[in-house]
Amino acid sequence: MRLVFVHSYKGGSGKTSIAIHLSQTLSTTQKVLLIEADFLMPSFKNIFHEVNPELYFNDYLNGAAPLKDCIYNQSPQLDILFASDTFNPSDRIHSYDRSWFLKIRNRFRSDISNLRYDLIIFDMTPGLQLFALSMMTLSDYLLIILRADYQSFFGTQKLVKNFYSRVVPKIGTKVLAVINQVPDVEEMDSLIEEWQTIYQNSLASPITFVRVNYDKELAYNAARQLVTYIPPDVDQQLVEFFNNGTQTNLE
Question: The pTM is what?
Fold first, then answer.
């Protein structure tokens, strides 16, 4: 059992689309649990219309329901754990109670070990949060999603220096950075190389980089809410990255 942590500096990077696509692709050969952990802007219910959850990840975290009762089947080898789309400001997931986050991390690690999954994929809330920092200590893979613009690059650089660098080198997490929606401009090649060097120098662990070029087909599919479209060459790179490795930090 391996855990994949999909994260970004801010919303709109394509994080959720890539997390869903990755889950659907890898579930053709493995048993996958996709967890919606974006508690501020949950969107799974808008995408998986055929599933009508009655219990949510929030219910499990708050101790209101067992983990297995909150999980719903979407396809033969893909299960989904939804975040509630009803925002409750008093929910402890929005608090700064560090001891509570450590407790739920340990409880999750114990409970998930009783379920038979090959991969667990977290679609996390963007930015810096205690829940993300706590759960990231369990991750075997970190998938960083950023758009090819300066704000996204600069914000992600802060995540690398102030967030990922605290955890990744200590637990040996494998890191993949996806630079999404890259415009077809020749000068982008040298700019992306510059970004890669800066990120790599900020993290004492190797980073694999993948770029997704923004084209008309991608834009059209996004407009039709075909959120899982990924160019075939990029799809193959993602699959190879997650198929190369058997380590787990959940044990």
Answer: 0.90
